[in-house]
Amino acid sequence: MDVPGGDYSNQAHAAAERRDVVVQLRDEGLTFREIGERLGINRQRAHELHKRALRDRPILAASAQRDHERKNAQLAQIDEQRREAEASREAVLEVLYRDGRVVITQSGKVIEGVQDDPTLLAAVDRLVRLDELLLKLNDHEAKLLGLYAKAELNVSGGVTYEILGIPTEDLK
User: Which of 64, 107, 110, 167 sits most deeply, having the most CB atoms within 10 A of its CB?
Assistant: First the structure.
């Protein structure tokens, strides 16, 4: 049976795909205004489509919400650990610089002026460990934020070359 306006199942499928696009763009951090501009709809319509997509998929929405909350909790934990490590690092540097006998490169690896003073050696060891911890925290945060994700590049179309000075018939 022909329905005026086209095939209903195709329309429903297209509407579902549009809602999925809205959810994807929202997950990428776009505002509803930006989503509306991309899709040629207004901000309110973009918000309605997003709300309906989440309502239509409550299990997926709940799962996505849990994942989002878990990720935010991990990022907050990383931030707290980073603040503690940086505060400890400042305290260690204060001890090391107090005597003016220590020279440390930015990486914390080259140290001069420290012979066998156990306090200073312990402070240097602590500094190196804190620097390693900060690097690990930065790496973990980058992974959580997807900064190491592979980027895909899709290229379509073709390339046309023109060699000047040679007739095209001679190139075949």
Answer: 64
